[in-house]
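Hey, resending since the last one bounced:
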Amino acid sequence: MMKNFSSSPLHSNNQTPNHIRERNIRKYGLLSAIPLRLSLRGYGFCMATLFLFCFGSLFYQLNGGPPKILLDIRQYLGVYGKNHWSVKLATGRLFIHKDRVARHLVSCPHVHKPRQGESTYLDDHGPPAPRVLPFPSQVVYNRVGKCGSRTVVILLRLLAEKHQFNLVSSDIHNKTRLTKHEQVDLMKNISNIPQPFLYTRHVHFLNFTRFRIEEPVYINIIRDPINRFLSNYFFRRFGDWRGEQNHLIRTPGMKDDERYLDINVCILENYPECSNPRVFYIIPYFCGQHPQCREPGVWALERAKQNVLENYLLVGILEELEDVLLLLERLLPHYFTGVLNIYKSPDYRKMGNMTGTVRKHTPTLEALQVLYHRMRYEYEFYNFIRDQFHLMKKKIGLKSGSHPSAYSPAFLRELALRTPEPLDEDEDLDTDLEDANSWLVHP
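The structure tokens again:
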């Protein structure tokens, strides 16, 4: 007998509403509790977020900036991913790449400063990575007077524009000795120049490490001491080819008796300008600011030699200026690349020829002998520098086209063996002066 399944409760189409409700409860009972749970969790999350926001805002207002936890959260969420950021200015909005922020903040003091409660890029992210600088990026040229310094400064101005380094050339010419406070102030000012820089001034050697300041690299140029003295003597009186009136600006208080004083009289009669300590001039530039550096003697000489060996990258001699420039190009290419091409160019030659001292002539041989004896420490230092310079040329592979000293010790030693007799007006004074002029190295 066949069963009629159509009357079964499971297959019957005439189900009561109670049956349907019970079936739905059994089917969706588990899922019905989920919306309630999600709502409670979402409500708690929102309340916690609101609490953190209020708490963070309170710290933000009290401390003048956001708390570190919010910065960490922002870092975690990847806010750092942008390569560019904006700085709000008083007149608009300027977009700056983040690796240029430090240079921009230094060069643009007018940038809008954040008020209390505002944050800047540096507050949020810290200082940017330092820009890669050439080495060395701090160079000091404490130029010695009448040793080709104006010639080199003209070259440096052209090179600074070409290679984009900061050239700071001081106009102070008569302040080479400084007090301790003046030394510290000057060294701090030099250290604050944006790098790479080259600072130049007529000043005696400054010991940065003594005051725990980063030591720059020193360079310098000297020349034959008697030649330097003669160039300075006549330059103070008659200027150079730029205009004979510039000496009136440099020495306005000089009387005509002093201006037209014969150099032989100045030397032989022991005028202050032609005797120590005035002729003890080059060594103090390398000895330093110690008071004993201004006293002619072995102590100052040895101290100057030590400073040259320990602190100077190069000290050249003016008589071999082209070799000096070539060495500087090899040792400091980011400053001096192409300097020889500029130096040999016709346009530069026109400017360089204007720096020669006018009305310069050579003293008598007797005066030269006296002057050399007074400058014996200067010549010992000059010979030391010349030997060191030739040694560096040999190491680099340059052939030494050295010139003998204008007034060699051998010549003066031979001259000292005989007592010079006073010359009469009829004697060949012109011949002696001609011979002396042949030894003189003109700038």
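DSSP finds 21 helices and seven strands in the chain.

Sorry for the duplicate.
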